Amino acid sequence: MNAIQLLKRRLLSIPIELMIRDAAEANKDVIEDMNSQQLLKGTYTSGRDITPTYRNPIYAAAKQFMNARPKPGVPDIKLTGAYHESITATVTGGGISMEATDEKAQDLEDKYGNELIGLSEESRGELAHGYIKPHVLEQVYDYLSRWRQ
Question: Domain count of the chain?
């Protein structure tokens, strides 16, 4: 078998799905933090502002003073931080699933909808290009570096 055929066989044998899953697993904390940062900006996974807005203007002003990232009156789903800290990402064969395990999770979903947990398109792009891709490229390089003629 010639060198080109050997290289082709080696390239086709790269376990890319496993490498992607490994990269996601290595970055679970980043994924969880990205979701928390979205909430602190007052945005759903769709990128829209979280609604309903605060009804009490005094409370809204106090929240804006504590966290100026969301638009005035837009919730950041943070009071004690327990909900944000309970966000967990699980890497499976089919992708990444996320959930919040805080005792208030169901109440918050009932009030604000089911778009609190997950990554926005912008966050998914940042994850893919800033974290997953470099990790996978390093693994591919290591994999190919072990190959000798």
Answer: 1
